[in-house]
Amino acid sequence: MNTPPPPGGERHGTRAVALPPACALAGSLALSFAATHQNTPPTAPAPSAAGTITPADAPPSQPAGPPPTPTALDIPDIGLHADLDPLTTDGNGVLQPPDRPDRAGWYTTAATWQSPLVLTGHVDYPHTGPAVFYHLGDLRPGQRVTLTTTDHHNRTYTVDAVRSYAKDDFPTQQVYGPTSTPQLRLITCGDWDDQAHAYRANTIAFATLTADGGDG
């Protein structure tokens, strides 16, 4: 399967414009939303310099079989609990954003542990304010992310890095490329531009599976 471009999509007139994950709805409706919420923009990491992200220590053995479907996400350090919905791509291979501000979506390019699991969510939402990933930029390396899956296990991922990338510098290979250990990516928008009424960047958290299992 081809690696998809930065997720999200928006249509202005008849021209489709690819946008980063979770930005599509916020971007298209920012004019009506900015006046009520963007006075208190979410935290975003500083712009990222090029460099290697060092994964946390993975469990001694790889999980057996294909990855189960994720159903819920918990990040206690930022007070986050969210149900997860599968995401799809459109006819151009562009990943579509989640439909609701209180839920995140998941996507993977292949059903193997060597294909990173990508979670996207809105940072804020018209008329409702902060959304599911509003505090994603507050995450720090070493903090834990727990996924509940259809096999009723809780799988713990440890955050390796949280970085900000300009929309025209989306790190496609780092997000979607194959990995030697089970990896997780969490993505939302960042760097709100009041003048442009748009987000200029993506906030991306990179995490490694460090504890596999235990009934949820």
Main attributes?
eight-stranded mixed beta barrel; 8% helix; Sortase, Chain: A; 216 residues; two-stranded antiparallel sheet; mainly beta
Structure description:
It is a single chain. The protein is mainly beta and 216 residues long. The chain has a single domain (9-40, 65-215), classed as Beta Barrel (Sortase, Chain: A), CATH 2.40.260.10. The chain contains 3 helices and 12 strands; from the N terminus they run ββααββββββββαββ. An 8-stranded mixed beta barrel has the order 3-4-5-6-11-12-10-9. The two termini are 32 Å apart. Residues 8-39 have low confidence and may be disordered.
Helix content: under 10%
User: In which order are the strands of the major sheet placed?
Assistant: 3-4-5-6-11-12-10-9
What do we call the CATH topology?
Sortase, Chain: A
Strand content: 35-45%
How many helices?
A: 3
- DSSP summary, beta strand count: 12
Report, as a whole number of angstroms, the end-to-end distance. 32 Å
From the helix content, strand content and strand pairing, which structural class follows?
mainly beta
How many structural domains are formed by the residues? 1
CATH domain class name: Mainly Beta
Low-confidence stretches: 8-39
